[in-house]
Every structure is written in structure tokens, then in C-alpha cells.
Design goal:
The protein is of the alpha+beta class and 504 residues long. 55% of the residues lie in helices and 11% in strands.
Length: 504
């Protein structure tokens, strides 16, 4: 906008000079100065036409040439004329800029040029050819006028910088308020979802007191979209277990039955301390598929985050490392979880050795070989933790789980979900086309943690960490000795292409 204003002022100045008359030699200087301002303004318009062509150095060249031309025109109008006041606007405008060095250089140029011209005229070194002449004034009055113009230049510069600071502080306060509201809404949504779950569990269920396989079922302790989970004990040795059965309302849907059977097959394949253990699979006398798993005591991550918004760095690194081991076991078995989220991450108590993190629920998992997924062509998973390619309904590999693990790390470190759209479509849109807020703006974090999460949450699967353990190790380095230079450059390249908070 400023270059166009400068060109408009040039046109007005030439029109006024044509009417005003004045010294011929001074008019030549005015014409040359106006041509310089027009050329420099055209240069600024060219370098600012797109973000790729802009640099601070290029902008500085154009701005300083405009300032030089403007000061040259003062020679025609007079060092004590109101024309000097036009530079106040230019100084103020550029003082609003982000680069303090550039704004200071422009102010200094205007102040020095005007001061030098005034002193040269007062000393007689330069003939005073201005329309408003200083020679008729006393030396004291000349000095006072020059000092007043210099004072106004300084006020314009300081006012511009102060206005910039005030504006940035106001924007920052507004951004913090918006983030706070979004966080409260996200936490409220999580609480509502958990309340809905809690209202549906805790008492006897359809299969309570029945013997299913080797287990007698007790109270209902969980319910999902496909099945119900019962507390159970072994009829042989009293060992505790959790038995999951397909919900009766879904038995008529062959696809849902197939998905449940697939979960039992997938879960039975995994033998890892950080994946919930499978004790038995089979069908009831009524041909209802069931899955008996180890009974876990403790709480899922979602429950813990309701009690405390964030986790300490050491606890987060430890959790991510343990979950990464479980995901690596799944990858080695050719399995993609596809629905990793706080509800499916469980901190289980152990009789010996403290607590351990475990991954639950492979209900929407995908096999990397064989028959593939039973949800092909559909968007499956939880939107806030879903990889972009998954949100687009495309085929996914284990790097979708790496993305979800990074989204969990983002959530527990910042206290904010990466994406909190008002509904599922808007959340999916943000997952595909927007980067979340920079983590270190939400809470105090090392810059390397930003880089690790940028790689983990990269929109392109090829930009992410190759495996979950790589993500876990990088996060540990980010909180410790720091990332290696190659990884920093790789992350910075991703951030340059997909800036935090940017939308495409």
C-alpha cells in the first residue's frame, strides 16, 4: 500500500510545482527526486508481489531510495517548509515493521539528510532555493525549526515502534484467549464423551454371570461401538480377565462380525508387554465371538488427562518410549492400529515392578498383507489423532500410527489437542490442510521439541519418522542433549513448507 501512496504524493507534488513556479534548478532536483521515488516504489511493488521474492534487504533498498528521493524534493520546497512533515508519515509507517534494524536505518537516513541539508543552507555551503526560504530567519530561528523537524521525526519513529508493540501484545492476548476457549471446549467435549461412557457401564450386563469359554462374566466394565467388555474370572484357577463380546445389535451385520473376528486374530498375533495380552478367543454357544484379555488395573490416558491437563517431560518421554515398543511389535507383525488415542492407551498397575503403559483395542486395525482392511474406502479412526492420509480415506501404513503417537505427545505436553474442530468434518479438514499451533507457544518447551513434533505430525507420511521408536528416541534427545544437526535441518525444512498454525 505504501508504494502506491508514495506515487500518489509524487503526482500531487509535480502538479503543485507546476502551479507554484520556483527556482528552475530546484525544479530539476525535484523532478529527479520524484523519478527516484517512483522507480523505488515500483521496485518495492515488485519485490513484495509474492512471499518468495521478498527479502528484508530488497525492501530496505527500495525504502531507502524513497527516503532519499523525498529528502531531495525538500530542496525545492524548502528545509523549513511543511513538505518535511510528509516524511513523518513514511517514518511512522516503516516503524511499524518487524525488522527493527530496517526501521531504525530509515529513521536515521531521514534525520541525517534533513539535518545535513539544513546545516548546509544555514552555513551558506548550499544555496537556499526553496519556495519557503530559511535565509530570512535568524540563526536561532533556523536552528529551532530544524530541531522541531528532527523532534517530530523522532516522535514518529518512537510512536510507530510503540504502536507495533501494543498491537502485538493485543493480538497475543486475543490469541491466548481464543486458545483458552478452544481448550475448555475440547476438555468439555472429552468430559461429555467420558460421561456418556460412564453412564453405560458399571453394573450387570446381558452376559453377566454366564460362563463364556473358560471365564465367568461379572459386571460390565466397558462398551464400544462394536462390543461390550465384562470383568471376568477363570473357572479353572480364578485368574482375572476382561472378556469382550460382540454387541448383539451388530450380529446381523456381517461386516461388523468380520471386524470383531479380525480384532481377535490381530490381538492374538501380538506378544508384547506393551500390548494388552490375549488369553483366549472363540465363540459362545450362541455363535457370538468373544475375546478374553488380561484384566488391567489402572486408568487410561484420557482419564489421567482429565485430572491433570499435562504430563511432565520425563513421564511423557517414558510413556512414548513404551508405546513405541508396542507399535513396533505391531509393525513387525504387519499390523497398523489406526485408532491410537488417549482412550486406547492404558497405564496398568503391576504386582511387581510398578506400572506399565499398554496399547488397547485393535478393532479398526489393518493388516499390511493378506486381506488388508475390512474398512477399505472408509474414514476410520478418531479425527483428532488421525493422520492426514487416513482422514482422506486413503490406504495407510505404520506411519499413520507414528502420527497418532506424535499427536498424543502434543496433547500431553501442551495440554491442548492438536486439532479441536467444532465438528467431525471441520476437524478432518484441519487435519488435512492445517498445522496445529506451535507447541512452544502453548507451554514452555525446547525448540527441538517443536521440531520433533513437526516431523511426527508432518502432513506427508514420507516426512515423518520411519518408525515409532525413532520418534521416541528423538523426543528424548530433544529434552536432553538436543537433536543432531541433520534432523534439525530436516525438521526446519518441513516447518518451512508447513508452518505452525498455517492453513492451505
Amino acid at each position: 500500500m505504501f508504494p502506491w501512496i508514495a506515487i500518489a504524493i509524487v503526482i500531487a507534488a509535480l502538479a503543485a510545482a507546476a502551479v507554484a513556479g520556483g527556482d528552475v534548478h530546484a525544479k530539476v532536483v525535484l523532478l529527479g527526486s520524484c523519478l527516484l521515488v517512483v522507480g523505488a516504489s515500483a521496485w518495492l511493488l515488485w519485490v513484495t508481489r509474492d512471499r518468495d521474492g521478498y527479502t528484508d534487504r530488497r525492501a530496505l533498498v527500495g525504502a531507502m531510495l524513497i527516503a532519499l528521493g523525498a529528502n531531495g524534493s525538500i530542496y525545492y520546497w524548502g528545509a523549513a517548509s511543511p513538505a518535511s512533515g510528509l516524511l513523518i508519515y513514511g517514518i511512522y509507517f516503516f516503524a511499524l515493521g518487524a525488522n527493527r534494524g530496517i526501521t531504525l536505518a530509515l529513521y536515521a537516513e531521514c534525520a541525517v539528510l534533513h539535518g545535513a541539508l539544513s546545516i548546509a543552507i544555514m552555513s551558506g555551503a548550499v544555496a537556499d532555493r526553496g519556495l519557503v526560504s530559511m535565509t530570512a530567519l535568524t540563526t536561532r530561528d533556523q536552528l529551532m525549526l530544524t530541531a522541531m523537524v528532527q523532534f517530530l521525526y523522532l516522535v514518529a519513529y518512537l510512536t510507530g515502534r510503540a504502536t507495533r508493540r501494543t498491537t502485538l501484545e493485543a493480538v497475543s492476548r486475543l490469541e491466548r484467549a481464543v486458545r483458552s476457549v478452544a481448550q475448555r471446549e475440547a476438555l468439555l467435549l472429552e468430559a461429555r464423551q467420558e460421561l456418556d461412557r460412564a453412564l453405560k457401564i458399571g453394573g450387570p450386563g446381558r452376559y453377566s454371570e454366564q460362563v463364556i469359554g473358560s471365564f465367568r462374566l461379572g459386571n460390565l466394565i466397558g462398551r464400544g461401538g462394536m462390543g461390550e467388555v465384562y470383568e471376568a474370572v477363570s473357572v479353572h484357577d480364578g485368574t482375572g480377565a476382561a472378556v469382550k463380546l460382540l454387541h448383539p445389535s451388530t450380529l446381523a451385520d456381517p461386516r461388523q462380525v468380520s471386524r470383531f473376528v479380525r480384532e481377535t486374530e490381530v490381538a492374538a498375533k501380538l506378544d508384547c508387554a506393551h500390548v494388552v495380552g490375549v488369553l483366549e478367543v472363540g465363540t459362545t454357544a450362541g455363535e457370538v465371538p468373544f475375546l478374553a484379555m488380561e484384566r488391567l488395573r489402572g486408568a487410561d490416558l484420557a482419564h489421567q488427562l482429565r485430572r491433570r491437563r499435562t504430563m511432565a517431560a520425563d513421564d511423557t518421554v517414558d510413556m512414548i518410549r513404551q508405546l513405541a515398543i508396542g507399535l513396533e511389535a505391531a509393525r513387525a507383525a504387519g499390523i497398523v492400529h489406526r485408532d491410537l488415542k488417549p482412550h486406547n492407551v492404558f497405564l496398568a498397575d503391576r504386582a511387581v515392578g510398578g506400572q506399565i503403559w499398554k496399547i488397547l483395542d485393535f478393532g479398526v486395525s489393518k493388516l499390511a498383507s493378506g486381506q488388508g482392511t475390512l474398512t477399505r474406502g472408509q474414514v476410520v479412526g478418531t479425527p483428532a489423532y488421525m493422520a492426514p492420509e487416513q482422514a482422506r480415506g486413503e490406504d495407510v501404513d505404520h506411519r499413520a500410527d507414528v502420527y497418532a503417537l506424535a499427536a498424543i505427545a502434543y496433547r500431553v505436553l501442551t495440554g491442548h489437542p492438536a486439532f479441536t474442530g467444532k465438528d467431525v468434518p471441520s476437524t478432518l479438514y484441519d487435519v488435512v490442510y492445517k498445522m496445529p499451533t506451535q507447541p512452544s507457544l502453548l507451554t514452555a518447551l525446547p525448540a527441538d521439541v517443536d521440531r520433533v513434533l513437526a516431523l511426527g505430525l508432518a502432513k506427508s507420511a514420507s516426512d515423518r519418522f520411519a518408525t515409532a521408536p525413532e520418534l521416541a528416541e528423538a523426543l528424548a534427545l530433544a529434552f536432553g542433549e538436543g537433536l543432531p544437526p541433520t534432523m534439525r535441518r530436516r525438521a526446519d525444512d518441513v516447518i518451512e513448507r508447513w508452518a505452525w498454525g498455517a492453513r492451505r
